[in-house]
Amino acid sequence: MFRYEVRRSTTIKAPCADIIEYLSDFTNWPTWSPWLILEPSCPVEYYGEQKQIGAGYSWNGDMIGAGSMLLIDRDTVSLDMALEILRPFPSKARVRFEILQSGNSSVLTWIMTSQLPWYLIFMKSMIKNWITMDYDRGLLMLQSQLETGSVLSTPSIIGEQHQPKVHYIALKGRATIPKIGQAMQSHMARLNAYFEANRLSIDGPLFCLYEYMDKSTTESEFFTCFPVAHSIDIEPPFVCDTLEACDTFVVQHKGAYRFMGNAWALAITASRHQKMKIQNKPMGIERYWNHPGDHPETDLLTDVILFKK
What is the per-residue pLDDT for 9? Predict the structure, then answer.
């Protein structure tokens, strides 16, 4: 057996005691779980007296698999839980939450320790990277729920679509997930200025084309793209290129951009579940149907589009 650990932290503007109370009640978990959000119809059962040792819950999903979580210990600054996965492959793990009060905020650390059988050792890095990104998504939603009372994220499957040919003018960037939004805003300002100076028209919804992502660092190479009616000659650093017509798999996200990871996770999970062959490079695109300046975050609509092989 090969041991591995995932450890992720975030700062939440809430007292330690409130976080302990919230996390020890498993009926709260569907609100922020990075897995249950992918399959809202997943059957979930609760047992024991919530918030007390011996409480737990189980799930039996179609896409997200099956398993259970049991609260085995708690004190004023930590929770310990036993996790058992039944599907997609059997495994057991210890889950721990540690909380450190810091002024009016708390630093929450989510830890999982587990083991892999020898025949899955080749998947160790991949599984650890998947869980790390899932934990980051979960902590972001938990932070939002505890600080604002809501999580503005509803991903849903649109399905297979044909993507027509698109010409676009773009700027290329590299950034980790937390910094992509800032980089794209800078790109959009420069592209808007370029289009105005050259009297160009935008021909369709804006989109971001992701070439690839290093899953261990989340650093991505991407193009912020403004569609145009036809190809034109252009000077660097701007590029003009064409996205050829292709077949795709689409998931739509309604809500704040900071939760777009949920739509990507659903697109990848659902396409795998359907045994669909998807290209690794380019990864796919985000297509923005509306914009924060014109619509509230609750109404923002974005497509995540994966390219089929």
Answer: 97
Before 88, cis peptide (omega within 30)?
yes
- Tell me the per-residue pLDDT of 88-114, one tens digit each, with 9 for 90 and over: 888 899 999 999 998 899 999 999 998
Q: Distances in Å between the alpha carbon of 26 and those of 37, 70, 165?
A: 15, 9, 47
In the prediction, which pLDDT does 121 show? 65
